[in-house]
Transmembrane protein
Amino acid sequence: MEIAVVENDYVLPTVMYEHDWIHILYMGISTIFFLIQVCQRISVDLFYSSNDLKTGIYIPSLNRYPTELTPSPSSISYIWYIVFIWQAILIIYSIIGVFHRTSSGSYFYQHPCAMNKWCFFYMAFGLILYTPQLAAAAKNKYGIGISIFRHVGTLCEVLIILVVVHVSLWENLNNYLRHRFFVDVWLTRLLYHNGLALWASVLFYESCLSIVIGFIYSNYISPITASFIGCSVLLFGLLILSILENIIFYNSLAFTLSPWFAFIWLLGGIVFRQHDELSSSIDVICFPSNLSCQLFSNLSSYPFQIINNSNVTVYLLQPLVEYTPCCSNLTWLITQMKSRMNSLNISSITGLALDSNNNRLATVASSKLQLVSTTSFSFVNSSINLPPGSQAISYSQGSFYVGIFPVATPYTLYIYSSLNLTKTGNMNFTQGGPQRIIWLFSNTLVCVLTQTNPSSVSKANFYNWPSNTLNQSITLPITNAYGLGKASNNDSFVYITDGSWGGNIWQLKTTSPYNFTLFATSASSSESPTSVTFDGCNRMWAAFANFGVRIYDINSRSLLYAWNLNSTYSMLYDIVITNQYQLYLADKTSGTLARYGSVLQCTN
């Protein structure tokens, strides 16, 4: 008995052997791209792990887009390494055939090897098609549409190879036996049939997974329906495989068992992932700002749900210290604030905005943007010149947004990084000059206040985000819409100040029918409401030029406290408050940034 991988056949002296260089070229291309994919997979798993999700193995389709069909990251990563090992042995076996001669005047890789030239052509094409998928993963990117195309396209290429190899072995089986290549028959079934079938099975599973991801995260259908479709496609594939294996092509597929290994492995990964999630502890996030605690379980599964249940007891392992309770005694609170007063001189200051951590306060004064540390109450060594007329400022998602007043074309909102104040872009509008901007409903909707020049028409414009398409433009019955704010726990309403003398504070509903109702009035025609801010206890702090600060309950709209500061600050332009009752006021006339209060610990 002769074995192709061990010894050569006896060759007659008159037989001439010639290599098929195109065939060898296809084998070389397949080998190169196979090695590229192995390196990419290792780089994804080891060097590009997700810092946000704290996982050692990072698969974009799993960690960033969880579904009910998603196995554990380790299970799908490890089975790819099994595929790579199988492919490596397959390629080595094929390369050995390049140097092995048969008695018929050809090399083994040319004939009767079942993995013929066209198999390597489609294999090279499939590897080239799938390589960008891993390259995108290494760059922490995952395009849903292109991913489906790459998975399904590569799967089709591998299925073509699998069919050709099966047919080729069946047609050349007598030649294998005539040349006494008995071991090679079994090596063909083990390496080619099972290796390619394993590769195709993993690709088929990831194709189903990509389809589910595409449906869910493109908001085409509900997650449950998408998962049902994906599972149905997977089940249909298993049924087809079972029918082909046991009825139609029994003789050819009788020894091809690797697909069942792949499916059991991956489906078992789903079971282990769900078991880990169910056995994990419940995460509790408490928000004293709105007197609520929210329980999050199964954080890595989809969909996420928050359930409101008043019959749940929450046990805290340590007291909450970041936020203070509501100071219900406003007289005591204001007294404490007055006893802790500091100020900085900033000529012509008009705008204030806090970053999300309450660590830095951005100031706009004399067309200059500058940062102040809320800890030391001193200037940070960061400042930048702004366009002429820069006045109002807003903050969201790591950026400061600066508006121009008086309004001038082009109608532009200028964007600056909160880290180093570098300019990162512009937002242009056609409805008028933008003053302030605020994000709503988990950053899916944006409200922008605009004015025309001269100040005759004010609008509240709602844009879908991040598409930045206009959703609704509301013409307001006021002429100088300037201040804009909302309560931290309620996106249903925004509050707008009419900066005219004798102007009022208004409440605007953020969804249809967009009711615009009076919230609070000025005490006299010599006052002007310029800005509003909110503490964590449903209280509005409003700055009034020629008066000071008034505090309102946003539910009852009642005035809770009036703090007259007119003798000290006659032209208050902006106001912000931290979650620990540090109040910042910007007075343009005196050129003062005032801070009242420090870290206060209220008892009620």
